[in-house]
Specification:
Layout lengths: L6 H31 E2 L2 E2 L2 H8 L1 H34 L5 H7 L8 H12 L5 H8 L16 H26 L3 H9 L4 H30 L2 H6 L5 H7 L9 H24 L12 H4 L5 H29 L1 E3 L8 E2 L2 H6 L5 H31 L6 H13 L2 H12 L3 E5 L4 E5 L7 H26 L3 H8 L4 H12 L1 H16 L3 H6 L8 H9 L5 H27 L10
Helix pairs in contact: 1-12, 1-18, 2-12, 3-7, 3-9, 5-7, 5-14, 7-9, 9-12, 11-12, 12-18, 14-25, 16-19, 16-22, 16-24, 17-19, 19-22, 20-21, 22-25, 24-25
Length: about 575
């Protein structure tokens, strides 16, 4: 059952919900749309059409589409065999290898680009030096991995980072298939690829489209990786480059509209493709009953596949770690001199130390917002009888479908100049949402909006596992709904709240798009902005940036391990579409 609320409590909830999401989700998007389609108060398509007519922008749009499609395809090719092996076979070490497959999630891809550059730089990268030692290249015929081959470099790095999302969705889809469906097909003579094409894959389509949509949107709108690779002819970088002229040139807003329309159209199309088709089965899969032990050759092939993917996925991490341990690394396969000094510098450098403090502050405040809102919204959706619960749930999850760069660009435009002074006579307080003046408020809000879906899903998962009888007893004994929530509900779902808090805090600490777009002044830099700025500096900048990246990896690893121990298999659902 769901508990009814009085009209006043419901009205307060709806008002708070509308205020938060209206001001910090729909308003910045609407502002970008108005700027893209309006001139002197009149509607116009000239700005959007101008983007489509500009050869550079057309190339950027095409490159972004190709990038999204290529990363989605390669992620599927990598993840599908892994998901099949994990669900269909029982072999020693399966939980260990399944855990290692998720390792790429502990490193933002733009930090991984630092590691890739030390291996694949044209004139001093280890790959070209190794090929030269083998006599396969010479000084006049070096492979330009990040210039001529820059597109493929971005595809590879994004694939190595995003295949876990596809893996989680495909493995969940496979595990939910009733083995009786495949057994019936085998009895009718279907085998091998025919069975997979006609029975298994069609039943997996909901999970596949969910994962493919998330991967495509992420790759399509990723800012950090192309920036670090110097691959600037993509839409995210073009939008980033127009920050400095957004007041005078509406082209940035037009690009935002193209990205927004594309991602939302893709999201809706993925829903439409599977709508009207029946994927229901008599029962969900019982994977334990369908698992089989492979023979010696098949088991060797499975181990080889897992080790190959995990090894490739570790290359960016290895590059970052090796760079962080290098005192000097130039024109050699491995560093000339090893040192631990950069780890101390990363925690004491004039740029990094304030950045660490800033990130802890921003992430702590945004996580507090997420805990309060996530608990409130989750309880209202699961335990309270409110009108429009499905619509509210869809709005809460909307930030997962909206690219971070779209929201961040909208924030800069919508709240630019939004400042004022509260004068009480004896006390004056400067209030601002203008990121050029002070980005703290908008950073906290943007972090919380982007991570709120994780917290809501954690709360909903906890509530669905807890019997309502405890809360019913509390209400029957005279406690108010608020008292019941704080004294009964919160302790019962405490583990889920802790897991959601860990995820919201840790991913906010390493947020890229918001951090790069919303922060203009060095005193306000968060960690990711500091890494980006350090990498561009000569001398020891890349080494300190790598060390800071390793510290970030260690932090996120511990965070994910803690969340996984608390939530178990439920944690994977937070990264599925």
């Amino acid at each position: 059952m769901k508990f009814k609320l009085d009209g006043k409590s419901t009205a307060i909830f709806y008002a708070a919900f509308a205020l938060f999401f209206g001001a910090f989700l729909f308003y910045p998007i609407s502002y970008a749309l108005v700027r893209a389609f309006q001139i002197n108060g009149r509607f116009t398509l000239s700005f959007v059409l101008g983007v489509l007519a500009d050869p550079v922008q057309r190339e950027s749009i095409a490159n972004s589409f190709l990038l999204g499609a290529a990363v989605t395809a390669t992620s599927t090719l990598v993840a599908l065999p892994l998901a099949w092996a994990t669900v269909k076979f029982q072999f020693p070490g399966k939980p260990f290898f399944s855990g290692l497959l998720l390792v790429p999630m502990i490193l933002p891809p733009f930090v991984g680009a630092i590691g890739m550059r030390v291996f694949f730089a044209r004139y001093y990268g280890s790959a070209n030096l190794f090929l030269a030692k083998l006599g396969l290249t010479d000084g006049g015929h070096l492979i330009d991995w990040f210039g001529e081959w820059g597109f493929f470099g971005v595809v590879i790095l994004q694939t190595l980072h995003l295949y876990p999302i596809m893996y989680l969705n495909l493995s969940a889809a496979l595990a939910n298939i009733d083995p009786a469906m495949e057994d019936a097909a085998r009895n009718l003579g279907s085998r091998g690829l025919g069975l997979f094409r006609r029975i298994t894959f069609p039943l997996m389509l909901p999970g596949f489209f969910a994962g493919a949509t998330l991967v495509f949107i992420w790759a399509f709108t990723d800012l950090g990786t192309p920036l670090m690779f110097g691959y600037r002819r993509v839409m995210a970088v073009q939008i980033f480059d127009r920050l400095v002229e957004m007041e005078t040139n509406p082209q940035g807003y037009a690009l935002v509209v193209v990205v927004l329309v594309t991602t939302l159209a893709l999201f809706l199309a993925s829903k439409q493709v599977i709508r009207g088709q029946s994927f229901s089965m008599m029962s969900k899969g019982t994977t334990a009953a369908s698992e089989r032990r492979p023979g010696p050759l098949a088991m060797a092939a499975l181990y080889a596949m897992f080790l190959a993917v995990i090894g490739a996925a570790m290359i960016p991490h290895l590059g970052v770690v090796m760079t962080s341990l290098s005192k000097r690394w130039f024109m050699t396969l491995t560093p000339d001199i090893w040192t631990l000094d950069h780890y101390g510098s990363a925690l004491s450098h004039p740029l990094t130390l304030p950045a660490i403090r800033n990130s802890i502050l921003y992430s702590s405040l945004s996580t507090l917002v997420d805990v309060v809102l996530g608990l409130w919204i989750g309880v209202m959706l699961v335990r309270r009888k409110i009108v429009g619960a499905a619509v509210l749930d869809a709005i809460v999850m909307l930030p997962l479908a909206l690219p971070g760069i779209v929201l961040a660009f909208g924030y800069v435009g919508a709240f630019g100049g939004a400042s004022g002074t509260l004068d009480l006579g004896f006390f004056q307080w400067r209030l601002t949402l203008d990121p050029r003046e002070n980005p703290v408020a908008l950073l906290v809000i943007s972090y919380s909006v982007r991570r709120l879906p994780y917290m809501v899903r954690a709360v909903v998962a906890g509530l669905e596992q807890v019997s309502e009888s405890f809360e019913e007893a509390s209400l029957n004994l005279g406690a108010t709904p608020a008292q019941t929530t704080m004294r009964i509900t919160v302790p019962l779902i405490g583990a889920n709240l802790v897991a959601g808090t860990i995820l919201a805090f840790s991913f906010a600490m390493l947020e890229v798009s918001d951090s790069l777009l919303l922060v203009f002044k060095e005193p306000f830099y968060p960690i990711t902005k500091a890494i980006y700025q350090l990498f561009a500096r000569l001398d020891d900048g890349p080494y300190i940036a790598s060390a800071l990246g390793v510290w970030a990896m260690a932090f996120l690893t511990l965070s994910l391990m803690g969340a996984a121990l608390i939530m178990g298999r439920k944690m994977g659902e937070m990264f599925r579409g």
